[in-house]
Structure formats: structure tokens, C-alpha cells
Description:
By secondary structure, this protein is mainly α. It has helices spanning 2-46, 57-63, 69-80, 84-101. The longest helix has 45 residues, at 2-46.
Amino acid sequence: MGWEVMLYSFLTMVAVTTVFNNEARIKRIEHNTYRTKLYLKLIMERLEIEVPSRLSERIQAIALDPRNKIEAMKLYRQETGASLLEAKDVIEDFIEENRHLGQ
């Protein structure tokens, strides 16, 4: 019975360690992705390359205030027919970009 408890404890520790390592990797990947997007945006601004926004001016005006995120998501879905997940991702990306760039 003692070895079963030790084996269970060992496997639990391995599982917990794996979860924490994966979370740390995911956070690093998210951070690197954010930095890459930011650098790309800054390079494009420096080269005066404009990429049309995926958001209408109306949605951009609403989404500039993060408190209006849900309203912006609804409007984006109405205008594009996008899924809820896509709308959430697009609006959150817009909010994050504008928060970090101080626009």
C-alpha cells in the first residue's frame, strides 16, 4: 500500500509540474506574440505603410473605451457576421493595441 501512495504522489507532482511549465510557456508565447505585433506595427508606421482596419470607424469609436467592449463586439458581429469568439478576439486586440500605443 505504501508504494501506491508514493506512486500516486509522484504522478501528481509530475502532473502539477507539467501544468505549471505549460502555463509559463504559454505566457512566454503570448508575450512574444504581443511584442512581435507591436514591433511590426511600429515598423509599418516608420515605413508609412497603412493597413486598413478590420473595424469600421463606428466600432473603433465605441471600442476605444474598454468598458464598451460588449457593445463593440455586438456591432462587429452585426456588420461582419463573425462568430462571438472572432468578435471577442478582434475587439480585444484592438483595445490592447490602443492601450499600449496610447492612442
